[in-house]
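Newbie here. two chains, one complex. Structure please?
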Amino acid sequence: MKTDTELAASAAQGSQDAFRELVKRFERPVYSLVLRMVQDPATAEDLAQEVFVKAFRALRSYDPRWKFSSWLFKIAHNTTIDHLRRGTPETVPLEAGEDEEGRGGLAAVLAYQSVEDPRAAAERRDLARSLERAIRRLRPDYREAVLMFYVHGATYQEICEVTGQPLGTVKTNLHRARKELAQMMAGLGWGPVKPAAPPPRRA
Amino acid sequence: MRHLQQDALDRWLAAERDGRDGEAEAALLEMFEALPTVGMTAPPAGFADRVLVRAGLRTAAVPADLFAWRPLRIVLGLALAATGFGVLWLPPLLHFLAGLWSVGGAIQGGIRVLTDAGQWLATVLRIWDFLVTIVHDLAQPLAVPQVMAVLVLSLLASSLAFRYLRDQITGERNLTYVDPS
C-alpha cells in the first residue's frame, strides 16, 4: 500500500487514481472536522470538497517533510475559518445520533453490537451521544483541538502547525477543554461510580 | 462486567476531580479509542466523485438511462403539451404568412432590413468615435513623464497596501477571532 506522501507525489504528476485514493483516505476525518466546526452537513460537505480541491491545486507545493494529514488539516482549518469569517448564516445545530449512526457510524456501531450484548451496546451509544453533545458545546478553538488530538490522533506539535497557535496555547486549550468536557459529562449524569459503602459496624 | 469505555470514563472523571492531569488525559484518550464513532462522520455517498468533478478531473456522470431521470421526463412532458397546443395555432398562422408573401413584399422587406442595419451600424460607429475621443483626452496627460511617474507610484503603493491587508486578514486564522463564544 502506498504512503500518503507517495500518493501525493503521484497525484501532483496528474494521477487521478492517486488523488482519488487520497480523497477516500481523508474524506472522513476532513468532513468530520469541518462538520463539527460549522455544524451544518450541507455546508460541511461543500467546504470539505473545497478543501480537497485546494489541496489538489496546491499539491505541487506540498513539502513531503510535512505530514500529509497535517498539511491537509491546515487547509481545512484555513478554509473553515475563512468561511466563518465571511459570516456564518443561521444553521441547524447538528444533532448527534441519526446523522452519525445513519452513515459512517453505523458500520462501527453494528460491528460492536455484533460482539457485545445489547445492554453494553446501548450504554456505549448513550455515552457516545453524550460525549458528542459535550464536544458540541465547547468553544470552537477548544472543539478543534479536542477533535484533532483525541479523535484524529494529532500531536501537540501538529496542532500548532495546523492552527498556527503557540505550543503553550494548544496545551492550555486542550487542558481547559478536557476540564470543561469532564464537567459537562458529569452534568449529563456520567459521574464515576461510587465505591460500595462499607457494611455498618456492629456495636 | 464493567465495560472498557465506562471504566475509562470513571478513571478520567476521577483523575480530573483529583487534579491528576496525566492520568486524566490518558484515560480520556482510552475512552475515545473505545468509542470510535465519536467525532467521526462519513460524508454523503459519492463524495470522492464530486470532489474529482469539482477539481476538473472528471466530468459529471450522466445517468445511464436519460429517460429515467425525472426532471427530463417532466421537461419532455411539458414540451409535448406545448407542441400540442401550438399545433392548434399552426394553420391560421400559416394562412396569415402565405397572405403576406409576394415578390414585391419580399423585396420591400429586404430593403427595410438593409436600411435598419445601416442605421444601426452608424449608431455604433458614432458611439465608438465618442469613446475614442474620451480615451484620447484621458491619455494626453499620461504623455507627461511626471504624471506617468505619479500614476505608477500610486499603483505600486495601492498594490503594496492590498497585499499587506490580505496578509493581515489571512495570517491570523484563529477561531477566537471569528467565534469568541
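Moderator note: The helical segments of chain B are 4-18, 21-34, 47-54, 70-100, 103-139, 145-171, 175-178. The mean pLDDT of chain B is 83. Thread marked as resolved.
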